[in-house]
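Readers of this paper often ask what the protein records in our data store actually look like. This encoding replaces a full spatial description with a residue-level series of whole-number codes. For reference, a complete record is included directly beneath this paragraph.
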Amino acid sequence: MAELEHVHHCTPDDHNHGSPAHAHGHGHGHDFAAANRAFFDQHAHEHSHRHDDAHSRERSVRQVNALRKAWPELFDEDSTVAMDYACGTGLVSQQLCQYVKSVVGVDISQASVDLYNTQASNQGLAPEEMRAVCAELKGEPGELDGLKFDIIVCCASYHHFPSITDTTRVLASFLKPGGSLLVADIKSSEDGRELFPATHHHLVPHKHGLSEDAVRAAFEGARLVGFDMRDVFQAKMRPTGEEVQWFVVRGVNPG
């Protein structure tokens, strides 16, 4: 997700992306997807300028490096076809593209997607190497022209999805047989306290972070196998300054 700092003072080293690409579910009558889409459409340019700073880029480096360290065999610059889900303006994709053959970003914010593609072009990357599309994925035949992926990466966005079960099921449908869904996000605290401030509750349905049990249930509900969840690093939650635990998790499409 795109960083909300300066506008809503969001979270730690979390929001790298634009709004989530999945619009299913209106938690307690509130349409989180529409709220996120409107927010990131409005503020995409502001986020893009801030993402040029070293701190923002370091966050995306940490997330991608954590995934690569956990499962290095999944990243092959000659063969791996990747999706960056909820890609925003492309910070994670810019890191990821160094280690895979191609990256397709997906986001529901058209403004974020436009910036993503402009920046990729300015960096001399061909669309076959790195491009983004604005779409609400539903797991239906023919979406993304039938493209399937070796890996699907989703960093710092799962806590924005009203139903991580629905989201995981949709993403699993875009994996090749043997392909892996890789998620990086914030783990819920042991005492169950809210980690996200009230100013973000209209954008973040999972204000307590995500528990291992909830993530496991979502992955297993999508018939992904080999569930592997690991704590990777801690980062400060802004603006509270509280340290939160980040995790990475993998599930495999058995085919």
User: Anything to note?
Assistant: The radius of gyration is 16 Å. The chain has one domain: 27-252.
